[in-house]
Amino acid sequence: MTGAVLTGHRPPLASGSATAPGPGHARDAGIRDDPVTVWARGHHPRAGEWARPEAVAHRTGSPRQQVAPGPPPPIKRLCMSTLRKRKSRAAAAAEEPRTAADAGQAPATAETGGTGGPGARRGLRAARPRRRGRTCAVCGLLSTGLVGALLTAGHPGGPGAGDGAKAAVKAPAPVRHAPTARTTPPWDGEAKVIGDGSTSYTGPQPHQLKPEKLKPGQKPPQFVVFSWDGALENDDHFFSRFRKVAKANDAHMTFFLSGIYLLPKARRTLYHPPKHAPGSAAIDFPTDEHIRWTLEQLRLAWQDGDEIGTHFNGHFCAPDPGGGGTWTTGQWKKEMSQAYSFVQNWKTDTGFKDLAPLPFDYAQELVGGRAPCLEGQKNLLPAEKALGWRYDASSPGDFQQWPAKKGGVWDFPLQLLPYPGKDLQVLSMDFNFLYNQSGDETEGDPARYPQWEKETRQGYLNGFERAYNGSRAPLFVGNHFETWNGGLYMQAVEDVVKAVCTKKDVRCVSFKELCDWLDVQDPAVLAKLRNLDPGEAPDWAAFLGK
Question: Looking at the record, which segments are called Disordered (predicted)?
Fold first, then answer.
């Protein structure tokens, strides 16, 4: 099959929901079901044209776009419904309301964009045999305009808002946004419980990288950031697995938490997504058990030195007309407000009074995120800057270069890596390797799993070696807690962590720690580093000398 660079990951949409046109929706939407070549925008500062990914060379020294002549052709913007184990239709029918009225939701209107009901969500892992995958479409970035519902700055919803909620519910604590000044509060050695007891301040985060300014002529360290979208601890226990892998290999990671993964299904109408009815989401709400497990992993991850970022909440993506790619800055602010609130009010929302507070103040700790499907960064950046966030990881892709700021925050994109054995580059995320291996099928031929796992592992290592022996530009790896193609992408990442994080001069850090290091560097030095091609290894003493 023809190789392709894809721009993002699309969560599943339940057929028949407002955000999925139903069976055969790919054809209904004018989207081809067969594999296609996806065209990608050239992001290198010296290559602003459109180019086929197949034509992107992966020479060690200087990857460049081979520009196709003439104007860019129409782009196939496709979406992939990832396959997850789902509950039986009977169980789902028994558990989920069938109408907006049953769910306590507003009826569909032109303004709300349809029901957008809870059926449009990704299934949680069920304890039953795996099914063979269906053919799905593959996805990129583009949405239409929208008018989102205005939300209050505090925790949305109220007494009786969710199914099964009691008539009288204690009002949640007000949302405490990140301060505009990134300062560490004074620590007197006493833990301070915040709000309803969901979070607390227990002092500065332990085990953090101490940033040091480069000396004249000093070679930079090789930074590697492994990040995870969603961060739910479900029956596969991937969160705990990779938290332990990081700890065993002197690594820190960034876990981008989807806020509604701390919101019980019975209270789902506390979530008011832009352009959708209250309680709607394109991913499933978790079980109570999964919420408990996730809270424990969040606690342990922070104590290990890992970062808890955000993947926002409902995971709405194109072709949903209310996807994040169409949200205004104001709508992003409302989405961000709720991402804070679900962490800061989980005790009120869940009723779990037997659990200890999370050991961090989320208003201080939340400094960046990755938008679902990498959509909407243009309008998201001003919202992030207004809240004092330090970085954004929502760029759809770029070459391996030293980071720069965009809109006042550090821009950490997924990166193009040399694909093993092919004259193309692939974005540094599991889904993009999958598409180049099994196309739009998430459970491909098991006989090919060993080869695909080897290709994926070597693809990440190709990107690492190119930078490690070249410009030392940070390597960004983004992944999902998924079992696609037998879980080979999880194993490939684990192998890469073990292979690179203990090497000389390598620092496997969180995005927040990378911000700390970048912020203490001389801007002129960073500007020089950004002029290097990924595989370009200068005489460091002369290049960064006085």
Answer: 1-131, 199-218
